[in-house]
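User: Fold both of these, please.

Assistant: Here is the first one.
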Amino acid sequence: MLYVTKYDSPLGKLHIASDGEAICQVSFDSIDEDHIVCDNLTIFNQVKRWFDDYFKGLNPKIGFKLNPKGSQFRMKVWEILSEIPYGETLTYGEIASMISDNMAAQAVGGAVGANPIAIIIPCHRVLGKNGKLTGYAAGLDRKIELLKIENILK
């Protein structure tokens, strides 16, 4: 069972899900799993403050637990995403080469696209070959705005 709250971001409403101990999902789409709407969990207050700071263009530190669910491969990709510094990017190919010499960038793209914790696990910091802006599950327009917040794009 998940607890869900909403956050009104400058880019649209975010749906935030927690198991009560950690953040499990952040999405611009609604949460499909069984859930209870609950706005008063401590972790929700923490993550909303984090988003307040993030959308002000600050680089807030994550002071709450994350608990994304996925395959071992996806978890590895999301771990790499979490290590991309604020204001910096990697390409799908660079991430693939961090995992294996023969890893396909397309496989990484599938895992990036399945990231359940948008923005906090910064999949928006992943670019295509030669720094090309490519897809984002929440829409390329939102990816562009997130990159502008971090001064990656002007």
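And the second sequence with its predicted structure:
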Amino acid sequence: MTLRALAEAIGAELVGGDPEAVVSNLASLSEAGPGDVTFLANKAYAAQLAATKATAAVVAKDTEPVAAALLRVDNPDLGFARVALLLKPPPARPAAGIHPSAVVSERARLGENVSIGAGTVVEDGAVIGYGTVLMPQVYIGAETVVGDDCLFYPGVRVYHQVTIGSRCIFHAGAVVGSDGFGYAWTGQGYFKIPQVGTVVVEDDVELGANVTVDRARFGETRIGMGTKLDNLVQIAHNVKLGPCCAFAAQVGIAGSAEIGAGVQMGGQSAVVGHVKVGSGLTIVGQSAISKSVPGRESGAPADRLIWIDSPAKPMREQLEEWRNIKSLGKLRKQIKDMEQRLKRIEEEEKSS
């Protein structure tokens, strides 16, 4: 596309460069060359923007001109994502139809324009919505309902009696509806507690590769609309996730925890069971929430919406604690000096 067409398509202000210059590829600031589009979302990399050889860069509206043409937008991340869709559109979805090797129950109901790949199994009573794509080797259990325009990559497993909303994307290896981790000790071994509940995944949810969402012991495990879970996230039984949460890789949520709307969790962070995490919180990677934490809905101030460490505490408190720890060496030296001076004074008094 020309820069002029690209700017019009994403609603950007074009500053500098040749409006008729053609771009066709995407690259990072440091690796980009002629014909490439790059972006700057973090001002810490401003020096790289000044030195980039890209034809154009998607930047914030207050960015000063550089050698590359600038596509100024309100949100560079979002703007660059739109550029990516224009220059590098995703592969076309498979054509509608059922592969000859797929096994689809006669008692399953399929909407129009459904695509079912090789080796996929759809059990009795399952419902697959309009335009949904099940790639090869997907399993859909009995009486499970999948909404419209979903995309399940190879190897997705959805157990029985699960409800999936519309426009959901499940990446390879995701498992939804497996048994929650529940056992009773008999004195000689573990007795498996039946997990008779279900899982409800609302609209526009994306699950990364090998995400696992456990079936409830009773009632439901629920994933709120618009939530995005990175690879290897574990959601235990009876967990409730609010809308628009975003969890990075290897996050773990223990049983019966309730997570509010818009909660963000960094990689390898965790929440213990049976607690409530308020809306709008950010939990820094490798932190662990060990108690209920209020969020925006309770009027929590901004400096108590970012939690860090294990057990986690508000960022402000943790930074103060780290500063105090860092000063311990200096404080120890001061105390040692005071002790030596006091000892000299005592000796002088004795000698006099």
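The CA atoms of residues 213 and 235 lie 5 Å apart.
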